[in-house]
Backbone:
């Protein structure tokens, strides 16, 4: 009896292994199907959000600002994780800045800088934060935000303008030495550019 049982062990192991592999394969296929369905759903959501965002921009282009704002708010509310929603937030912040609702603009922009997808939207939010501080004449925070931008996005296409504006903020704040330092950094980091020409002109004017 014991021998018969021992002789069946290989068959039992084989059957158990086969059953386990079948379960694993089924689970893998199930997970793959769920991921596929999720991706399709997200793709559809992104498409719908982009279509609505285009409608908002069309409304602004036709001078229907209130309609445009309403659609932006709808995109943000209906598709909170879609890329178009973060683009809508940037535009919504621009509207808030225009009407001098600076705190509302900053709240949206800071959230967008932290969470936006794709990543390319984050520096656009950061640049707008600087603009908001500039608009409300908050030079101290404009300087701080500019330095943070330069440190975090040193290769961004806006960084040269950010450098120039930072130098001007220093002049406004009465820190001419800091301004000259930034202008000289522009000459070194961005030679043979329009920004370098402007920096050299400002250096000559200050001296």
Residues:
């Amino acid at each position: 009896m014991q021998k018969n049982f021992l002789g069946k062990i290989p068959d039992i192991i084989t059957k158990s292994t086969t059953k386990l592999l079948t379960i694993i394969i089924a689970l893998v296929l199930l997970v793959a199907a769920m991921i596929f369905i999720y991706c399709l759903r997200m793709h559809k959501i992104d498409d719908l959000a982009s279509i609505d965002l285009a409608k908002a921009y069309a409304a602004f282009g036709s001078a229907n600002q209130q309609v445009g704002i309403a659609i932006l708010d709808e995109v943000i509310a209906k598709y909170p994780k879609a890329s178009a929603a973060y683009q809508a937030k940037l535009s919504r912040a621009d509207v808030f800045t225009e009407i001098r609702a600076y705190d509302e603009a900053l709240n949206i922009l800071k959230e967008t800088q932290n969470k936006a997808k794709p990543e390319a939207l984050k520096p656009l939010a950061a640049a707008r934060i600087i603009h908001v501080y500039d608009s409300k004449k908050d030079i101290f925070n404009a300087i701080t935000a500019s330095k943070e931008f330069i440190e975090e996005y040193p290769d961004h296409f806006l960084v040269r303008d950010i450098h120039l504006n930072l130098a001007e903020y220093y002049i406004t704040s009465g820190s001419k030495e800091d301004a000259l330092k930034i202008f000289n950094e522009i000459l070194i980091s961005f030679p043979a550019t329009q920004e370098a020409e402007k920096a050299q002109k400002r250096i000559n004017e200050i001296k």
